[in-house]
Write a structure and sequence with these properties.
With 216 residues, this protein is α/β, with parallel strands linked by helices. Helix content is 49%, strand content 10%. The two termini are 25 Å apart. This is AAA domain-containing protein.
């Protein structure tokens, strides 16, 4: 299926993807598919078909989550992304033809995006790798604070925290950042001196929405 009315934003953590998806949907009367919107399907997933997504759903001892090695964490994250792609495509097929633009904070791979939509409907937003690691626990998200408390409850909390930071560094590595940057899609890099409104203007220009108007 070719998505003609869907706009995808992908990239690295803390680059502003969710904020832009929300602002775009509000301004252009569109449908917002924000971060982890596929979670709506999580309760019905079969763990045999979606072992990575159901890992946290069915987890009994959350300590197992925070003490994994960087290799284990990276394999899980990559597995989650592949499984999320299946769910996202399933959801988007049901809403893409509703007559409204759809704005997506997506996990869909660059390879798949190149097949299902026009190049101008894909935007990559990047933050420097160190930001994704150093600011992970800065947000008041309940999930992140829960993980932080788990790490602090370990017998050697500083050692546990350092291991978890290594996990984060693995999935926010310069190599992954460069892979996005060299993909051929339009890239917008995080700039601390730029306001959300100014970033929105850049995003609209990248998508061609500065010239296109949607009816509400």
């Amino acid at each position: 299926m070719k998505f003609e009315n869907v706009y995808f934003i992908t990239g690295t953590a803390y680059a502003g993807k969710s904020t832009m998806v929300k602002m775009l949907a509000e301004k252009h009367g569109g449908i917002e598919c924000g971060e982890n919107y596929h979670d709506a399907l999580l309760p019905e997933l079969d763990k045999e078909d979606f072992p990575c997504l159901t890992y946290t759903r069915d987890l009994v001892d959350w300590r197992d989550f925070v003490v994994r090695t960087p290799d284990e964490y990276e394999r899980w994250v990559d597995g989650v992304s592949k499984e999320c792609e299946i769910l996202e495509l399933r959801i988007l097929e049901g809403i893409a033809d509703k007559g409204r633009p759809v704005f997506v904070d997506t996990n869909i791979s660059l390879e798949t995006l190149g097949k299902i939509t026009d190049r101008q409907h894909v935007l990559i937003m990047l933050a420097e790798p160190y930001i994704s690691v150093s600011r992970f626990f800065d947000r008041p998200d309940r999930e992140k604070q829960f993980l932080y408390q788990l790490l602090m409850a370990e017998k050697e909390p500083e050692k546990a925290l350092e291991n978890f930071r290594k996990c984060l560094m693995r999935i926010n590595s310069p190599e992954r950042n460069e892979r996005f940057a060299n993909s051929g899609f339009t890239v917008i890099r995080r700039d601390e001196n730029r306001t959300p409104a100014e970033t929105l203007e850049l995003v609209e220009k990248a998508f061609g929405l500065d010239k296109e108007h949607f009816s509400r």
